[in-house]
Amino acid sequence: MNAADRAHDARRRRRLVTPEGVPLDIVLATRGARLMALVLDYTIIFFSMILVFVVLLVTGVNLDAIEDNGVGEFLFVLFIVLMFLLFNGYFIAFEMGPRGATLGKRMVGIRVAARPQGQSGERLTAEAIIARNLLRQIEIFLPLTFFQSIGAGGSAWIAGSLWFAVFMLFPFFNKDALRAGDVVAGTWVVEAPRRKLAEALSLGQAQATSAEPAYRFGDEELSVYGEYELQSLERVLRDGDDKTLAAVHEAIVRKIGWQAGSGDEREFLEAFYTALRARLEGGMRFGQRKADKFSEVDRSGTRLR
Amino acid sequence: MKAPSIRNPFAAKPLPEQPDIEAAALRSDRFRIEREGDWRRLEQIVRRLERGAFGRLSDEDIADLPVLYRQAASSLAVARETSLDAATLRFLEDLVQRAWYQVYGPRSGMFRWLARFLRGGWSRAVRAIWLDIVIAFAAMAAGIAAGWLLVARNVDWYYALVPGAMASGRVPGASRAELAQTLAIESSSNGLSGFAAYLFYNNATVCILVFALGFAFGVPTVLMLIYNMAMLGAMAWLFNSVGLLPEFMAWLCVHGTTEFTAILLSGAAGVHVGRNMAFPGDSSILGATAQAGRRAALVMLGCVIMLVFAAVLEAFPRQLAGFEARLIIGIFMGLVWLSLFVLVGRKSADGDAA
After folding, report:
1. Which of A81, A146, A182, B250 has the least C-beta neighbours within 10 A?
2. ipTM above 0.90?
3. What value, to the nearest 5°, has the Cα angle with vertex A188 and ends A187 and A190?
4. pLDDT more than 90, % of chain A
5. Between chain A and chain B, how many beta carbons pairs sit less than 8 Å apart?
6. Does the distance separating the beta carbons of B301 and A97 come in below 8 Å?
């Protein structure tokens, strides 16, 4: 991850405090992901509409010629109600569910959440979801009615495009990427977290070292690196790419002035990782943190961020 | 030498056996091993909740959820200060977030929420925006008066205010008999329920639009109310000019007391949002808007329900019933709505505030 990526990520990060007083970092969904979700959702709606038509056709119902008998009329009523529910109820019903996301949002891994007013996190309520989805009427459907007049000539379609553009570009003009519906409902769209717990790296190594320590590192060797390097090392070890391991091993050996460990890079790096973590965590308990290799140890005990 | 101990974290496998606490050299690893079982259990419960498999959870799981959530949250707080194991930290961050969404998510299912909504939440929301109802009512009254007066001065205004499709024979210069014909009783109910469904779709869309336009500080909402009511005022003038005003009122009143109340409420909801955006008072603009928007959304959901009634009334009694029956049904419906908004949900303000 390069510096530009990290800066971009930091811009999308927001902090809220749970009622237990634990600060949580949530990440806003990108505008691209939201657009993708919207497209997916309307594709789903569109295909369900087609499905309804096909089912009607297969069962031999002709929508044009049903005004005459009672059954046909009932089907017509059902059809209109279904359309209304599809266009207005789809988003509301899915976002009220436990995952707070429509099918499209689930696919791209985002969800709706209540925007905290102030600092503490809020409960996502049904009325917020209703409000944010009713606004779709002016964001999407109203300009579509302008477009209907394209064939008839006139300038209504220009007004329609302008209108459409205003609401589509709305998320680009505020820092939380809110659309009009989010403003009115007090919601925002965030990335839905779902990460599995990975194995602890230091555990396998700990068993090895307790039996027969292959490498011992002194204070001098360990004091050159900080938390940033530790996390990079963890990533490299988890990826497990041999070439990268060799390159990292070489860089570390050069830095600390050792000759050992070539041909046995993984073992060496795991031992180094464990030793470095032990040292840095030991420092943390005394309120001393070292952000990266360039920084001095911070003795103030304040949190790094 | 031991084989590399790293394993593929994405491979599907049963819960890994707990490593021996004694084997852990680092304090942060011991911390993790001690609590890992609880974290995984919480993750399992949360995953089931997210899937909506609420019924598959045992009572024990549900009872433990808040406890496990608080434990994980405190683990996270501790781990942030003592551990540099990035994988554990990220997992905990995600786990606490997911659990937070479930523990502090929507509290009840949709049906229970709807029941509470009908038993008082709706009425309270309507009462909470009384000032905006007054404003919307004033706009509508002004619209009717404007329509009537404009046409009374110059009949050409009628064609400007009432689109041709709506008029269908109700034009100035039509004879009394022709106008009476447009109010006449239909002989059969064929096709009327389809007509009702269409009316519902159309009116509901218009109502949602009137509300959503409140986003522009409520100005377009007020304009739309005035324009639509001007149309009504013009028609009322037309029927009055041939002495059919009472019949026209009765014809309108069947569904009108419901439909116009719904339009009034959605207009008021739009004005409420717009007014709070323009004058947020002590809170921030975004905060005030969000609060107003949520309150207005409750009113709007009620409007959609009212419009179902309105469409049915418009299709059947308006076309099938006579003068007195129309008047009685209309006034009765008006009283029903009025008493619903004024009387229901007065006592219990228990939690589901508007």
Report:
1. A81
2. no
3. 140
4. 8
5. 261
6. no
